Amino acid sequence: MAQANKINLWLTYSLLGVFSILFLLVVGFYFHYRSTSALVKEIAVKTPVALQNEAVIPDLSDWRTIYPNPKPMQIAGHEVLASVASTMSERIIGLSGTSFLPQELVKLFVFDAPGLHSIWMKDMNYSLDIIWADDDEKIVYIEEDVQPESFPNFFTPNVPAKYVIETNAGFVARNQIEVGEMLVLPNL
To answer: What is the sign, positive or negative, of the torsion defined by CA atoms of 52, 53, 55, 58?
Structure first.
């Protein structure tokens, strides 16, 4: 009987030790996750507007510091320069937080595949015209004069598109751009 009590006591202390170690691991992971997720949330909510408040704001007369490496392209025969957003993070940020878009510049979003790619006006400071084009570079849908106040609404084409172009509001009307006209994209 004494031998059985020793085995039961050893088993009890062994299990208590294992549970103590598991408890410490769970508590450690919890606090690590909590501090990591707080950092991720802080980074995720910082839009370019918030980041500009912490950094030196570039000279707005030199727009190439805000939109580096623009590429020439055409929208229905009208020559413009395109700031290209081809990665997921570039497409998510888009023009959010920028204070202006030069008249001769557009934002070109390049998606991996055609789809019903939606655009929103999160953290926008000016109105836009939005143009969607298909895989063949044909304009398939247009939204004009989309206001910053429209956020959190999404703007979605009624047919699949691979490219989305954001321009200053009034660009479509001024250049009489219509669905069915063609783009000439830069070398991507």
So the answer is: positive
